[in-house]
Amino acid sequence: VMAASKPVEAPGGGGTAGLSRWQLALVLGAPVLLGAGAIYLWGRRAARRGKGASERKTPEGRASPGPGGEGGSGQPDGPGHEEMSPLGRAQAAKNKGNKYFKAGKYELAIQCYTEAIRLCPPEKNLDLSTFYQNRAAAYEQLQKWTEVAQDCTKAVELNPKYVKALFRRAKAHEKLDNKKECLEDVTAVCILEAFQNQQSMLLADKVLKLLGKEKAKEKYKNREPLMPSPQFIKSYFSSFTDDIISQPLLKGEKSDEDKDKEGEASEVKENSGYLRAKQYMEEENYDKIISESTKEIEAKGKYMAEALLLRATFYLLIGNASAAKPDLDQVISMEDANVKLRANALIKRGSMYMQQQQPVLSTQDFNMAADIDPQNADVYHHRGQLKILLDQIEEAVEDFDECIRLRPNSALAQAQKCFALYRQAYTGSNALTVQAAMKGFEDVIKKFPKCAEGYALYAQALTDQQQFGKADEMYDKCIDLEPDNATTYVHKGLLQLQWKQDLDKGLELISKAIEIDNKCDFAYETMGTIEVQRGNLDKAIEMFNKAINLAKSEMEMAHLYSLCDAAYAQTEVAKKYGLKPPTL
């Protein structure tokens, strides 16, 4: 996958139903499969069917109609006014308020609703809650948000599962910038409406994203840089083939020394921070690479361009994009540097921009890389993945084709081209092209039986097609080829949930992923999602927090905070209202 993002995962562009991942944490009452880079919700249809009820601007008519609908249509000044019960008089005042409301006379409506509240017998909870909710609706029209929230609170105290009052209070909290309170209310609404109303889901999504961004910005700024696991680093570098800095020590790097002057050669090595850094790379002693590269840069040594690119790459790997950028900028502007170094720096900066959600800058960098080094297969391979993320499938396929033309043995590009064609066919619901794409996967795994990514991507497509048994076999092949790839265990674990609803087996496989790589944020995130679905919200929050501490970008961290906040809001709603979504 693109540089500076999870390399072991397949590309993909957002959930096929256009839903956000927080809904996993708010539970759609169905298990989920987190695709690589994309999310597939098994319960998509429920959400897609969402009623999208248009917002009701009018106040409520009758409250729960009692026998004969007391006072439901009575006019306050009509005959028999004297004999009316207290509730009847309150209903009449409310009806008068409703007329003023519909006429846009909100101050007068408020006076009538206040009168209804005063007249209503205190034991008539449901009627009283309606009057408060109606007065809140009038205050809302006057943008008096504090009064809206106060009246909705009264309405909810009298009728704890009053969806309309909860949603109106959520919107008032949003205006008052009380994000946490807004989230709690809208979470309760989502659960009460069984995730069927588009409006409440959109508000939940909006406030979760804002909370996530806010928290991630603060946390990411002050985070301790964290070196990923050796598996992750090796997998990252394996996505490049035209990358000088990740090649083993080359003869070219010792070209100044004659073969018979070995002593001098080791002396050069001693004095070259870059060559020492390369030695540490081979020894998997990754923590020393930034400091050794810095020595080369400060000495303005022979390998300064290489050292800048190597240092930038490790800054990206530890999640420090702001430190990586000036190094990448400098390499890109070095007109006399090796073009392969400049193209590689452009790929990495372009991928960094994509992670920062700046697709225009990202596209510019990839296009410039293709201009300066048109024979560099890596450019097309990584740009192809960018195009998938941007949902430009045809252009992605063209890039993969160019990569394959330049490097016919690139199993990775062939597998990803298949995946791109499959996504195109699947989203277009074209059964014939889906079949052709599935056949394409068969051809790739036959031609490249040692390419784990081919099996992994095929497994995702098979899962989509509900061919679970065969998908499971594909994940087993991946594990045989790459037994230390934690991500495959996570995908296989999720498959057990979808296929057999086997939570224990699923969790066992994801625990195995953590055993292999205890820095696998994807495993903790997935475990958190499963714990939400089991109703173990405290455990879920613990898992999301572990993932947050391992997040490789601010964007990823913001997304994880959204999941965590969604789970936390559910625990609060469960405490307050005894409301829980369905669990597995």
Automatic annotation (TrEMBL):
Protein name per its UniProtKB record: Mitochondrial import receptor subunit TOM70
GO cellular component terms attached to this protein's record: mitochondrial outer membrane
Gene Ontology BP term (one): protein insertion into mitochondrial inner membrane
Topology within the bilayer: Single-pass membrane protein
Molecular-function annotations in GO: mitochondrion targeting sequence binding; protein transmembrane transporter activity
Ranges for region Disordered: 50-86
Sequence intervals crossing the membrane: 22-42
